[in-house]
């Protein structure tokens, strides 16, 4: 039960020792996977609270040495939620692991070489390898709480390269992770400055209420990332990937100030003619929402497209085309 820490205080060290031994078995030459040992760390952190905190801290290195896995990510998430003071150490260790998996180098240049070697060995001998390891690393980047850790340039340089991977699952994981990180960044900037981002005549970004200039360098990184996301949204060979990117962009208004720029709108207009009706519907809804941000660029093209849909619905000899036009006009 949650809150039963006092009753377990005496036996917590013995439990931690057993968990450490079980994790060690999963790292031995025998390679006996024991995800339950990792899960126990997270469950006990939630149940025992402060009593388990020092033991969880002492188990972090052993946990990271077990290699990247869903059980590890879930356990670290649970520990971070129950012991926020460990969140910084968890973030650094997990980011180094993810960076080694994706970029073949640690995230932090200050990570000790011995620790880098240990994390590399854990990845090399871990249960997950190849595409499965890459997908989990990308997914974790998009879902874990990274706080104020600067990830923009890492996503641009080392994650978006996977948007061109031959595996559509990896491409999807890469673009979704990037979209989530950029979205969180934009939300944080808007919340800190008290208003939406706006483009100044010089091309830099400023917050609407606070008036503080967003770093020109950061703005350029965001623009490049958003541009690459739109390439996937309209040109990826997989309909599933195109839908996933557009759904993410449609689900948040945090990036609308960037999407409303003329160059990005032209890419979205391409999506209005996608082979998939579902993709066209999302693109149409997104373009319609952006009309309030940049009416001069959106409204003429949107009117032409709506007129074409009306024409198709009334006069097209193709029944499927008439049905899709009616659906898009709803």
How would you describe this structure to a colleague?
37% of the residues are buried. By secondary structure, the chain is an all-alpha fold. Mean pLDDT is 83; it is low at 193-213. The chain has a three-stranded antiparallel β-sheet. It contains 17 helices and three strands.
Could you give a quick summary of the protein structure above?
The chain has 330 residues and is mainly alpha-helical. It has helices spanning 5-8, 12-27, 35-48, 53-64, 70-82, 87-103, 113-125, 130-143, 152-159, 168-193, 216-235, 239-250, 256-259, 262-271, 277-290, 295-315, 319-329; strands at 197-199, 205-207, 213-214.
How would you describe the shape? elongated
Strand line-up in the sheet with most strands: 1-2-3
Please provide the count of β strands: 3
What's the pLDDT, averaged over the residues? 83
Helical fraction: 55-70%
Could you give the distance between the termini?
51 Å
Main sheet, how many strands, which sense, barrel? 3 strands, antiparallel
Q: What integer value in Å does the Rg equal? A: 24 Å
**What structural class do helix, strand and pairing data support?**
mainly alpha
What share of residues are in beta strands? under 5%
Low-confidence stretches: 193-213
GO molecular function: protein serine/threonine kinase activity
């Amino acid at each position: 039960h949650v809150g039963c820490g006092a009753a377990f205080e005496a036996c917590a060290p013995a439990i931690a020792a057993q968990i450490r031994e079980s994790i060690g078995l999963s790292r031995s030459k025998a390679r006996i996977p024991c995800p339950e040992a990792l899960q126990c760390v997270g469950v006990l952190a939630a149940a025992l609270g402060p009593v388990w905190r020092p033991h969880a801290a002492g188990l972090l290195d052993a946990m990271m040495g077990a290699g990247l896995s869903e059980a590890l990510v879930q356990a670290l998430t649970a520990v971070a939620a129950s012991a926020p003071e460990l969140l910084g150490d968890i973030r650094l260790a997990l980011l180094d692991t993810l960076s080694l998996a994706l970029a073949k180098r640690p995230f932090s240049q200050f990570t000790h070489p011995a620790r880098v070697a240990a994390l590399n060995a854990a990845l090399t001998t871990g249960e997950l390898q190849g595409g499965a390891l890459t997908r989990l690393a990308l997914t974790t980047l998009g879902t874990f709480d990274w706080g104020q850790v600067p990830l923009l340039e890492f996503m641009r340089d080392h994650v978006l390269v996977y948007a061109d991977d031959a595996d559509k699952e990896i491409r999807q994981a890469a673009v979704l992770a990037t979209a989530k990180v950029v979205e969180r960044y934009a939300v944080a900037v808007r919340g800190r400055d008290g208003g939406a981002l706006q483009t100044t005549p010089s091309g830099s970004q400023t917050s609407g209420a606070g008036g503080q200039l967003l770093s020109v360098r950061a703005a350029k990184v965001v623009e490049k990332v958003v541009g690459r996301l739109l390439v996937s949204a309209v040109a990826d060979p997989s309909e599933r990937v195109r839908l996933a990117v557009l759904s993410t962009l449609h689900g948040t208004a945090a990036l609308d100030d960037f999407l409303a720029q003329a160059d990005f709108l032209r890419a979205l207009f391409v999506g209005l003619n996608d082979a998939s009706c579902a993709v066209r519907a999302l693109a149409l809804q997104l373009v319609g929402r952006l009309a309030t941000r940049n009416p001069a660029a959106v409204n003429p093209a949107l009117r032409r497209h709506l007129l074409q849909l009306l024409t198709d619905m009334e006069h097209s000899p193709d029944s499927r085309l008439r049905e899709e036009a009616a659906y898009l006009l709803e």
